[in-house]
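Recap for those who missed Tuesday's class. We walked through two folding examples back to back. For each one, the amino acid string is listed first and its predicted structure tokens come directly after. Nothing is annotated here on purpose, so try labeling regions yourself before you check the end of the notes.
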Amino acid sequence: MKQKILIVEDEFIVANDLRIMLEKAGYKVCGIAPSVVKALELIGTKEPDWILLDIFLQGDKTGIDLAGQLTEMGIPFIYISANTNQGILEAAKATLPYGFLVKPFREKDLMVMLDIARYRHEQNLKYNQHEEPSLQKQIEHITEKKESSADRLKQVAAALYPVVPFQFLWITKSNPRVTTKETYIIRRDDGKFNTPNNESLLKEANISSRDFKAWNATAIVHNGKSIFNGYDFRKLRMENPWIQALSDHYKLESAIVCEIERDGETFQFVFFHHLSDLYTKVHTGIVNQFKKSWEQVLDKIIYSKDAVTETPLAIEISLEKPFIKTEQPPEPKDFNGIVGNSKLLHAAFKKLELVAPDDTSVLILGESGTGKEKIAQTIHKLSPRKNKPLITVNCAALPLTLIESELFGHEKGSFTGANEKRIGKFEQADGGSIFLDEIGELPLEAQVKLLRVLQEKEIERLGGNYTKKINVRIITATNRNLEKEVAEGRFRLDLYYRLNVFPIELPALRQRKEDIPVLTQYFIDKYGKKGSSNVSAISTAALNELQDYDWPGNIRELEHLIERTMVLTEGDTITAIELPGVTTPAVFNQDNQFKIKTMEEMEREHILSILKMCKGKIFGPGGAAEILNIPSTTLNSKIKKLGIKFEFVK
């Protein structure tokens, strides 16, 4: 039976072209809707299997608004939009579509995207994994943590910011009015967040308590309006002295208001930004779509009766010997050295277990040091291909002139220096799996050839005159935002769809700090067994330091730090931790004048702090190059360029 597709697009020419393409390919177009209202009408009468959804539509509602309802109805959808703005892409991504096509696109792109989207939907139905949007799950996870209210609010802000950018967030109870429980989240210039209380905020903004009480006596009166840009924001300033005072001090130029009704009481979430025209209907749709998340923030963080005021550690300390005891759930299966008990990590493990037995292509997403290679190894280990080779390729380390030869091989004499035949990585992996790490670093020319391998399942050696069929499972990983790379023309759209069949996202360590105690003990046990140290425990104070640090290098950085600290520790307990210094972008010079650091100064200080932490070691395991995730040759060049000498490292 033909699948029915509803096109939700307000440009008739574009919609008609889509209809022609789809019908030519055998799909049945059951209607064209220019607005959310019309789309809902057609959904009720036509019952489409799929929806192609534009973001900006006629009327007050956007495709983002409709997306939330489609998820509730269980109807899969794909975005089609001419807008490649990164903020719009992030907002769209938060609704978990099955694809995103950027206009204009080719008929082939549409068909490839539909094929991949249909397959992904079948997998989601099979495994029942297409649940609530990931941002909502992430915020729910944060609100459940046993950490201080301030720490959890900062984590919520960090998760929210890519989807709804803001410089200042004001959370207030507006009906009945209560100003004693005001909550503020401020994004600093370095990208981190502060959560000042009333007293510190008034002091920082130079506002008297008397003025605060007079100005903040009423909440924002918005008469149904949610977006305040340009003139609307200036008018809001004139009507509300408190908003005027905040915007003057923090240079705020626009706002979005979201109201939450809870048990007869009204709360307002007010997002502010420096730019005067930033917010659109898309952001309103996202803010409203995650009202459940805002309710959790209110109930479990801001107005919780048992809110934690200090950051506790999930440990018990013995009076005789300060060592870590963690109450852990049953141990998961052997995940190849990846340990942890956080919900975010176990969600990734669940996906891994589901996809490992299949031949599905897997895209592993996550920052450097989160364990992407170990996840790839585990997928191969749990698959029917486990007795065949797993070939690992670091795409970032491939020389530009030798990429084709490395991946696909070459014949003798095919180029200068090709003195013998070479078997490429794909051919070496025949029957097994190939792991392409840092796939986002692959140049466009190589992406074309990789796409052919994925589509045709065959390779041709450089200089050869025949093709060879191969049977390889593709596992890829990247720390880049591939949607952004596609939008900016650095990564092929068709290749992205081919690779992104089954994504597994690994959380950063700062998102799962509750795992730091068990990870720390794991590394202490691991290196203690090697006999190089007598350390078997860590003190409460030292563990506190680990949990207060943000871990830009993630688990890899934690492991190397624990290994080095054990070597330097006398006795059986780690009592002190030498963490990398915090680099600030602004300082005062000798004349007490404010000075902004240059990028070169910041880079020099950061490299110097890592070198000091590594005791000057550059190469090999635990060296500065590995922690910074750059080639040692590149690091040496930077050290020379920045004038860093060995005596500075001591």
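Example two. Treat it independently of the first, because the proteins are unrelated.
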Amino acid sequence: MPKADPSRRAGYGVKLVRGPFVRLAPHADSCSTEEQFLAHARRLKSEGAHLAADLFSGAGGLSLGLEEAGLRVVLSVDHDKEAVETHRHHFGGLTVDWDLSDAEQVERVAALMRAAGVDVLAGGPPCQPFSKAGRYLIRDRVTKGLRDPHDERRDLWRSYLEVVRLARPAAVIMENVPDMALDREMFILRSMVEELEQLGYAVEESIVDTWRYGVPQFRQRLILVALRDGVHFDWPTPLEEQVNVWAAIGDLPEVRGGWRPEGGASGWADYDRPVTTFQHSMRTGVPQSERDRIYDHITRPVREDDERAFEMMGAKTRYSELPEELKRYREDIFDDKYKRLDENHLSRTITAHIAKDGYWYIHPRQSRTLTIREAARLQTFPDRFRFAGPPSASFRQIGNAVPPRLGEHLGRAVLAALKTHASAGPPTQAVAKTLSDWFISRNSSPKGLPWLSAETRWQVVCAEILLDRAAPGTVAQVWPVIRLMDRPENPESTDLEDAVLDMARSIGRDKRANTLSELADHLRDRPGALDTDDLVSLRLPGLSEAVGDLAILSVPVAGKSAEEPVLTTKGVLRVAERFHADPVSQKNRLTDGRLAVARMIGGGTNARMAHKGLIELANTLCRPEKPLCIDCPLLSSCKRFGVEDDGMDPLF
């Protein structure tokens, strides 16, 4: 009986290929001490350079983009040894492996930035989820202007803001996942904006589609730009042409899965020539002696059954459509487990998961997963850029990176803003206070939705279900009775409930009355259910997320409510898009819409009343037709006022 091949893992059926392990020497201008770093920074400053620091820098995608824009990255910090080695190889200055959850390291970074005269701080701090209790404590600190970012050591975004507070750079660029804007309360982002504005920065946030800036993949990032002293920032103009997958990687030679060149880390594949404009740009900086070769064009081995599956797949084939004998995963869970990229369109997002398996990234023409170099191309890393460590570390660094082309466009826009030094509009804090004061000035008796001044959440729920879009006369008749109701489990409320339901049915709202009746019966068996700030998880019959959110916003529960949700209903988007002159309702309401609203209500002590003020504006003055702009408290800062005779662009 033959011996088992030790290079095959049991149950895997494919020969393992390890390595190569890439080692990269430090950059010629790399600094090994803080003294060398300061001398290096002073020399660049004397030559007129704008200096940048990159925290949580990874391999250096953002750093590379900033340098292409004209900045000089002199300081970078990360806590991944392979990424630090990669960055140190490609950039001069000081690249260190420090843990920024450590308060001493935070202060050390800020001191170095101050001493060097760093102009721009960039980075993508990880943002962890928080418990409601944790959110409440953090928000309390923020709104009171307290600075104690180190009692929760995993909160690296707070370390990032502490560096800003201590170093006070002219500009801050923060990159993160768009999930920060999908959170219904947008807690972290609103806290960041609040703190930055307290420090005197004008802040802009946006969900950016990276393909609009020459990145050949579907990849969205949340970008925050803050400029000191209230300087205005204009987002870079998107490019007209889109780069597809084949325009990005079509010039790279064919290779089989698991192939490795001779020479280990120094080996290469033969390369012919670039064809498209994008490919030519990827070859920029490749030495003349290496024009005929491509490095890191290697990928994983392919199982025989996977190879057969890949050969059967087109760009639109789903995993569930493969023959049963070729499925190794549950199709009801992994319907898109395998994905062949479409050469005529954008790639799917390159993430760090590519380091674990490449099934989401099957080559558009060959029956294998992407190579390191192909993944780097799709992230817009040029061919001269190499990655330290084994292949898995290279894939991880690529997937975690900010696409350099995005960084370049952001860097150019920031430099232009710092040169122009135009004044930004009113900060979020000022807008929120104006809205809050206006709402309070209406004697706690809103004219649009009077239940914004309700005393219990049950009152809000009843009014929303029965009176949404009702005529003013109907509201005036029914709301005073609803306002006498307390909780569905209270006997007094039950008697009034029958009267309210009869009134609703008398005006033709039978279906709404039946919905409310069923909900009331359900809640009577669950006293206090409406006191939670996670009403959606209760799956209460007849209670939509929008109605639940309005109840949470209108009536906070003492000691339980950490922060209010950001609503994109009740007409608030109409007000936000007119105020910002940005048609966010034509984009993504759950991202762009929430961001637009958040930029008006902030995250401080005025946020809840400001949000109510937005709803009141939408239902009284900022109407869909013939808005009463002259009476609006935001008139002086509304960007749409005066465009037409009635003060509104018809498109909005």
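Answers for example two:
The chain has a mean pLDDT of 89.
DSSP finds 23 helices and nine strands in the chain.
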